[in-house]
Amino acid sequence: MTGDRGRLWLVPLALLLTGLLAGVATWATADRIESELQRRAQSALGAAGLPADGVSFTGRDATVQDVPADKVELARYVVRGVEGVRDVQVSAAAPARRPAPARPEPARQPRKEQLQEQLDALLQRSPITFEAYSSELSTEGETAVAGVADLLAAAPARFRFEVGGHVARVPEISAEEARQLSQDRAETVADLLVDQGVADDRVTSVGYGDTRPLGGDDDISDDRRVEIRVL
């Protein structure tokens, strides 16, 4: 009897070992089941053209991650159709962030000197000229004013413009008459510029008379003109 009692402690140990062996067997079986289900689910998702890397299993319950938002229901249907799967949870992939639109570079506004160069080149090609002894623009002069108006109206608002009138030096008119005629010519152009879109407060007119001739004694036609200065 004493010997039988001495061996009684072996009974709990045997039970413990049996339980451990059963647990290991159960774990190994569950692991094999999850691996097999994962393999089948990945194969089914791939065949359906869906990403397969995000599928995993806990027992017979599947989790599928990073599926395109418009393919969530399809992924759920495909995995649920795998034999042995009990439940399926599908999460959509986070939408890709759109890159911020590039900000357009601000247009570089011309400097005063640049605008003056453009203006001078325009007036050199198409001078603003007048009829003799008159503040009435020539046909070419009217065309020239229209081109100048487009340029000035588009210029930055910080710029102002002086319209300077000039006349040819002739003995028929006095210095005062020349000054008044040049002023009339300047005002004619200034008014026309305003009519064609240049703000009134950006334009001033000055008459210089015959004090700034361009042509020689044989050609005074260029003296009947208007010049414009950027301020």
Supply the number of helical segments. 6
Most strands sheet: 4 strands, mixed
CATH C-level class of the largest domain is: Alpha Beta
- Quickly count the domains: 2
Rg measurement, Å? 47 Å
Describe the structure.
Helix 5 packs across helix 6. The chain folds into two domains: 32-94; 112-230, 2-Layer Sandwich (60s Ribosomal Protein L30, Chain: A). The longest helix has 38 residues, at 10-47. The protein has a four-stranded mixed sheet with strand order 4-7-5-6. It has a three-stranded mixed sheet with strand order 1-2-3. The chain has helices at residues 2-6, 10-47, 72-80, 112-125, 139-153, 175-195, and strands at 55-58, 61-67, 87-92, 128-129, 161-166, 203-207, 225-230. The model is unreliable at 20-27 (pLDDT under 50). It has 231 residues and is α/β, with parallel strands linked by helices. It holds the Pfam family OmpA. Residues 105-115 have a biased composition (Basic and acidic residues). Residues 90-115 are annotated as: Disordered.
